[in-house]
Write a structure and sequence with these properties.
10 strands, alpha/beta, two-stranded antiparallel ribbon, about 290 residues, disordered N terminus
Amino acid sequence: MTEKANLGSLILNESFFDLSTPIVMGIVNATPDSFYKGNRFSADKELLSCVDKHLIDGATILDIGGYSTRPDAAYVTEEEEQARVAHAIEIILNKFPKVILSVDTFRSGIARFCVDNYNVAMINDIGGGTLDDRMFATIAELKVAYVLMHTKGNPANMQTMTEYTSFVSEVYNFLDQRIETLRSLGITQIVADPGFGFAKTMEQNYELLKNLSLFQNLNVPVLAGLSRKSMIYKLLQTDPASSLNATTAANMLALIGGASILRVHDVKEALEVIQIFKSYKNQPNSN
């Protein structure tokens, strides 16, 4: 196990965020092929409208991605990813200069570019450092918050890599060992993401959700990214557009399991879940 750390806060762009009440990360896709059509934008005005709504609804962090990581996603060059992300960040910061930004990338070059040029506060790495062996050293140099996610393979082949000997233990051990490596490099602002939907079957995703409380032993905040994913809409035989209500139910289960950050398409509804969870959690037990 890793050394005990403070689970209760993050420092982003020199601002302190108390995680004793969970916070929300709003998804902003700078890609044309997001799995959820409601988060695809054909014009800058649409993207800014999404950002404006996220912020009005109460998002603490915006997560900007320029490479769709849904199963079977098309390959995107680093140059194209950087151009997409840079354009999105520039128009966002022009209107909302003090917003807290995360960039969803597994490429160290994109991470460095975004932090150096736009003061991005967090890197959200779906590869957990496995897709770019320079990522950990880059984060150590940049001194920003880092979301470490579990997956296997890459977006093109991850859904063929769902064989595990001891599923939950393997996910936990992957994160635990890599957190130890990150800390050895002096990285302290670490968030663990067990990677719902990445190299996992539907049944494994629900096993992970049921056992999410075990990941508190990692001694870092836990991020849950469940929003409108196939583990929800395929179970209900529907589609992403029709899965908001079920996402709300899944987010409540994640909060009960100890999640500190909810990564979502629908900020208002996620914050309502947090408000109900907080009131529920604060009530005394009756004998």
